Amino acid sequence: MRAIRVAVTAIACVAAVACFEEPVREHLHLTLIGDLGVVVTTVQDVAGPEVAESNPQLAARLDERRAAIERGWDRWRPLYDELRPVVERTTLEKVDGVARRALYSAAVTDFDSVARMLASQGLDAILDHEPIDDHSSEHELRLYPVGSPPATLNERAEVERRLDEWAVTVADYLADAAALYEHFERRPDRAVPCLSHLFGYGPDPAPLDKGEEELVARLKDRIQAVAGVLQVDSGEAYTLNELSRLAFDPFPARLTVAVRGTPVEVEGFVEGDGFLERPAVDLWRALASLEGRWLSPDLVTAMIAPVPEDRQPEPVPEDFATIARRWTEAPTPSEVAAALRAELIPPELHRVRWRSTAAEIADLEGGDPRSVLDAALADLPP
Prior knowledge:
Elements lengths: L2 H12 L9 E10 L3 E10 L9 H16 L5 H5 L5 E9 L2 E11 L2 H9 L3 E9 L4 E10 L7 H34 L4 H9 L10 H18 L12 H9 L5 E6 L2 E6 L2 E2 L4 E3 L4 H7 L5 E2 L2 H5 L13 H4 L5 E2 L5 H11 L6 E8 L11 H10 L4
Parallel strand pairs: 1-7
Antiparallel strand pairs: 1-2, 2-4, 3-4, 5-6, 6-13, 7-10, 8-13, 9-10, 11-12
Helix pairs in contact: 5-7, 5-8, 5-12, 6-7, 9-12
C-alpha cells in the first residue's frame, strides 16, 4: 500500500467514503448485435452503511438508494419495464442483508425502445444499418446529448463556487509538481528516490535531503487536497466530482458500448478492452484532459482514480522516472478554472461504425435469447 494512498484513505474513511470509489455508481452498457437486437444492461452499486457511520447526510442518501433498489423504485426499473424485452434478468445482491448491487439486463429486438430509454435520460440515439453483400453489413450508432443536466440551480451554483476553490488547489499542486520536475532536471539521479518516497513504495529508497523531504511532503499534501474532489466531505451527501457530473452532463452515468463485429470508425468514444466508453463529463476527467498543458506527466491522475481500491493506478517509480517531463510556469487559479470549465462541455457526438458478418452476430429471434444475454453479461466491462 502506497504511503500517499494510505494517508488519503485514512482521510477518506474519516470522511465516510472508502478510498476514492464513489458511494453510488451507475453503469449502462449496450451490446449491439447488428440489426438483430441489443442487450441493455444497467448496474447500480451502492456503498455499504459502514462508509457513512459518521455522516448522516451520506447515510440518508445511501439508505434511500438501497430502499429504491429493493422495492423497484429506482429510475432504471420502470425504463426496463417499457423495453418489451425478449428475455430479461434482474439480480439483486445483498451483503449482511443490505442491498449493495442491482443488475438489470434485457435483450430486445427493437432499437426504437432503447432509443426512447436513452432519450428519457439525456441522450438521443440513432442506429443505422447498411447491407454490403449477402453475408455482411455495416452499422453505425450515433449518440447526441440532449436536454439539461439534472442538477438544480442551487446545486449548479454550488458546483461553480467549489470549482473556483478547487482551481486554487490545482494551481498550487501544479506549482509544486513543476518544482519537483525542475529538481529532477538538475539532479536526474534523484528522480527514483523522490518518486519512491512520493508514491510510498518501490525499491528501498535512498534517504532524501532536507530540501527534498520538504518538497515531497508539500507535494503529498497538494495531491491529497486535489484528491478531495473524490471524497464526501463531512455533512455532505455527494463528492464534488459527482456533483460536477450532475451539473454539466445531461447523461451523468457511465456508458459503455460493445459491438458484435469489427469497428471501422470511432468518434468521441474512448476504446477499452473489447468495448467503447463515453468519457465522463466531470472534474476528474477534466483535470486528466489538461495533462500536457502545464505539466506532463500528471502525478495526480497517474496515482489516483475514482475506482475501487483494487483498481487504483500503481505507477512504478523506476518507469515513471524515465517518462519525458514537460512543465511551464504554473498557471493562475483563474486560468485553471477556465480550462476546467472548457473541458466540462459534453462532446456533441459519439459515433461508432462497424462491420459484421452473419457468423459474428446471434439471432435473437431464431436462437436462444438467453445465450445472447449470457454472452453479453460475460463481457460486461469492469
